[in-house]
Prior knowledge:
It is a single chain. The chain is α+β, with helices and mostly antiparallel strands. Among the domains are: about 85-140 and about 385-460, Immunoglobulin-like (Sandwich), CATH 2.60.40.1510; about 140-380, Rossmann fold (3-Layer(aba) Sandwich), CATH 3.40.50; about 505-545, Ribbon (Laminin), CATH 2.10.25.10; about 560-595, Laminin (Ribbon); about 640-720, Irregular (Hormone receptor fold), CATH 4.10.1240.30. The strands form 14 sheets. A six-stranded mixed beta sheet has the order 4-6-22-21-16-19, with no helix packed on it. Helix 9 runs parallel beside helix 11. The longest helix is centred in the last third of the chain and has 42 residues, at about 730-770.
Amino acid sequence: MDLKLLLISxxxxxxxxxxxxxxxxxxxxxxxxxxxxxxxxxxKCGWCTDPEFLKQGEAxxxxxxxxxxxxxxxxxxxxxENPRGSQQVLKNKAVTNRNKGxxxxxxxxxxxxxxxxxxxxxRSGEPQSFNLKFKRAEDYPIDLYYLMDLSYSMKDDxxxxxxxxxxLMLEMSKITSDFRIGFGSFVEKTVMPYISTxxxxxxxxxxxxxxxxxxxxxxxVLKLTSNGQEFNxxxxxQQISGNLxxxxxxxxxxxxxxxxxxxIGWRNVTRLLVFSTDAGFHFAGDGxxxxxxxxxDGKCHLENNMYTMSHxxxxxxxxxxxxKLSDNNIQTIFAITEEFQPVYKELKNLIPKSxxxxxxxxxxxxxxxxxxxxxxxxxxxxxxxxxxxEGVTITYQSRCKNGVTGEGExxxxxxxxxxxxxxxFTISITAKQCPKMGKPETIKIxxxxxxxxxxxALNFICExxxxxxxxxxxxxxxxxxxTFECGACRCNEGRIGRHCECSTNEVTSEDLDKNCRKxxxxxxxxxxxxxxxxxxxxxxxxxxEERYSGKFCECDNFNCDRSNNKxxxxxxxxxxxxxxxxANWTGSACDCSLDTTTCLASNKQICNGRGTCECGTCKxxxxxxxxxxxxxxxxxxxxxxxxxxxxxCRAFGTGEKKETCERDCSYFNLIKVKDRDKLPQPGQAFPLxxxxxxxxxxxxFYYTYAVNNNTEKEVHVVETLDCPAGPDIIPIVAGxxxxxxxxxxxxxxxxxxxxxxxxxxxxxxxxxxxxNAKWDTGENPIYKSAVTxxxxxxxxxx
Length: 798
């Protein structure tokens, strides 16, 4: 498993290294023919202007390379073209620090974004970054336009809106001292639901005895004003209208409010549009139902404050509305009844800087809805930019309130901003290429819903400074067949070669090819290049670090000897397949060091006087000595005693060095074995010493000491001590043995006494029985005759 992991990690390392080599040398891979082309490849690329820089066989494009590579190849830093981007701030007015109640300022005198104008010079691949500051100003002016659906279903809502002006003025005065309000109304295109209705129905579309005004698309009732009473009066004069289908023509009205700035009276301040309805909406394409096929043109068509082209242009699309609302810095508040909340919440997601509030059935909560929506919108700042030129990219990084940061799309915005809070953004702009003709471009960045913006002029670095000093029709370029600039010839059309010496019609000439064959051989440019104008131009390798060179491309810088898998051991450079070693290195692969400091022993002698220093390593002449400087003798007398204390403390935790063991005795590897038979034996690749030492308790321990082929010290030790019986245990054993003997003797005497008593009792008993016997003493009482008499029961004496 470990081997597999090692192989995988090695393979990944090789792949990553190869990838880095190729990606890191995009300069050479680009095959740039001029300095201008070179610097457009990437920010890492430079161009060597030294006329003598190129080696024989190298193409002009090899002047373009990474800066460090050019330096290593011998190009003086003063002769490297490497222009860098720059930036200049042209207008940097500080953000306004203003408190409510302070001296009133004109809207154009209030600054919420800084800086306001700057110029960036962009080099391809090199980002230019700057910081943008935004501060939400206190007491900032507000324009609010109330756009209301006057279809019949909104009749009760109109009654509540009639007093909206003075009440809203009072509430908004808590936020700003400069507030203006306007009013507009809408119903529907007059051609849509009434195509088949009578003229009388058009005059009064309501049913029964209800008195309604004729339907209309959009009417600008009141231009923005600071007179709340005028708002109440004009709104009080409005009448309800009607139509037959549920969706209304509100999109037509929103478009006109957005683009008719002079009629509405918008100022360059916070612009709020309150859209109030209890129905859905028509959008682009619905006009076909009434025979209207022309798309909305997004222009103002108000005459006498009435939209006059509703019958001519279709409804605008949602995308068209988003564009116009953003262009005119209008933030939209949808005041919608509960029934259509889901529809308008989806619409809100498509319109930046918009909010949705739930309108009560009779619009009684409209003031609170507007205040809440305004606070929600104004507490968030979202940056947007104008269209970018081809090849230009922009990134944002935000630093918001309470240390919150964001990147990517989240880097464009900050939330929960209160009045007086300051946030900042880091904006980076990068050009991937020069635009056509290299003309300057201008982009603008602004917070959505605000009129202030940052104007950024982009200038592109597409040519080197040395380009200005080019000599047209230079004699250097084969009698005027090109322009000599930046150290090389830029050939006129139809001419090629390093010095423009050939016409494109002569490239394949057989006579010229002869000059590209080495020793009149058959291979053109050693099969490593192309013959151009009788001169070899060597091919490029897949790895840009590897190059062919020479008059016939017979040389290269990658086929030299290697050491440790490194070309020329990493201590030299490969020139024409031969290693040119750095100082203090020699050998075909530059792998032999001439530095003898690594061979100095502690006595300052080379190899301790017992060897020679070869390639920075000691070769010991005395086989008994080992180590980097021939100072170690594993088999010399005194070795065992030298290491005894350390072996004892590490193996058994005893001895004089027990307390300092970790500090003083970590110089060898300790291996424990079970018994003496497991210890290493003589005859292996390196010499070793067998040791037998005794500790303070007269216990013996056995070990071997050696220095292996990697100059590592190894100690093998038997893990158990060999402890013989000591003199202090003999008296104890003798006492135990004496005790056992005495006990044995006592038991034997007792047994003998009992046997004597038993025998005497048995003898007395025998004598007594003998005296009492009734039989003759001459006859054996236990004798029995051997004759047996048997009587036949059938015998009757006959």
